[in-house]
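Pasting as-is:
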Amino acid sequence: MFLKRFLLLVLFFGAGIFIVYYREKIVRVFGKNSVAEKYLGAGGTYNMWVLIGMIVMLVGLLILLGKLSFMGF
């Protein structure tokens, strides 16, 4: 069971790092978010993607620690 949760951690961390690293290309594909630009200031869309990436990594850590269930793991 621990191995499955550890593999999910690696998957979620990889996804989070991917989002943070490629945030500029993601913004080019999806465009700017007016709400993020309004509340997070200039460059808010980029900051939003960094926050999303960090949340994805946090979810992976919570799954590893057993505090969050994901598809029965």
